[in-house]
Amino acid sequence: MPVKVRIPTPLMKLTANQSEVTAEGNTISEILNNLDNQFSGIKERICEENGSPRRFINIYLNEEDIRFLDAEKTQVKDGDEISIIPAIAGGH
Amino acid sequence: MGYVKGLKCKECKREYPKQPIHVCEYCFGPLEVDYDYEAIGKVISRKSIESGPASMWRYKDLMPIDGEPRVGLHVGFTPLVRAKNLGKALGLNNLYVKNDSVNHPTFSFKDRVVCVAISKAIEFGFDMVSCASTGNLANSVAAHAAEAGMKSCIFIPDGLEAGKILGTMIYGTQLIAVHGNYDDVNRLCSEIAAHHDWAFVNINIRPYYGDGSRSYGYEIAEQLGWRAPDNVVVPVAGSSLITKVYKAFKEFEMLGLLENKVTTKVFAAQATGCSPVTTAIKNGTDVIKPVKPNTIAKSIAIGNPADGYYGVKTAMNSGGWGEDVTDEEIIAAMRLLAETEGIFTETAGGVTVGVTRKLVEQGRIRPDELTVICITGNGLKTQEALAKSFAAPAVIEPNLHSFEEVFSNSLTV
Collapsing DSSP states into helix, strand and coil, what is residue B68? Predict the structure, then answer.
């Protein structure tokens, strides 16, 4: 099931400068593995060794933070959109 | 001539040149400004600071700009108020309020970060500034962009207080309200930032921007007579200010400017309706679980705090703690500060005062310790929070009889 994945600027070197790519999989984890097959090394940049996203990375499925869903096990379906975004400062 | 060597990742320590970037390409850790403290130590002294302007620019040697400040020359050096009356009400004998509700020009501590960010944006050659904001930052970016003669485009969550919306639009900016909360706005802005070559003060200018708030801590220490306090109670949203205030004390200590060693306990204050950082502190973890904010303290309603991990660490490593207060407690605390000290703060100030009360009750802050409460914004901007707190004033006829009637009635209340 193809989904669209938005790539943050610091990782675009790994995706031949594409800010949007397509990936396949039934869960966020599978999508990340599929991304790594296409763009070798991208997963270790996004995730810790145990496979969970790094502390300063936020992953959104259709604009919702996956930590409000089922984290890496969150199911994805055809046509979904995923954004990978570094944490950002704000407020006090 | 500045003293910035470059940027450095706070996590993996990789170094980067001075650029409008904010994230480590390798581990995604936040980038921090790397200063040449050895060179700063040779030029800075209590005397050099005291002979500087009555603004935050008396600490210019510690600010991350290369040239002179381009905007906001009058920002900072706000009053540190000896709060005897509030202290009496809270059971504290040595209490101070650092009052940025009267900061120039937009009445919040955000002027400190914005004048640095926009000066830096000009140095980088940007002609457009932008930000995601819960209101105070919007006011300040719009005002300083106007002063700089730059264009600005500002993003806020919908449903903000009227004073914060009008107090942004007046400066002639393009203001866009986004359906959702601050975290939604922030996510959108980071995607916009990837497509537009703008200076987003809290995104690609963030390392420089954040360092402006160290001036709040420098001022506290200088105004206490070159001392770090025993306790400081800081409002927490993204957790930037709390880390920078503590860093400011430690920098002054390192530069030999303080009378005492820094043993300051740092306390994080949040609203119960948005308390991911104080919840983590109470649970003894540094893993932040994001929340959907629901509180009248909109200026600190950030459910997904970027620096939350560092906020928790700062509070815990300093021997401090984290507490939160309900909307009712926030309003009661805003009224208490106003009625005891004559200072009208916004909801975030109600949070720090209300949390201080709780910390005293818990014995975490003791009566004779030197305690500073951070007041970072102005109550005239968040009047909606008090809408149900007061009845309309008495209206009388313009004659003595009418007055005496109302006055004697009020005496019996």
Answer: coil
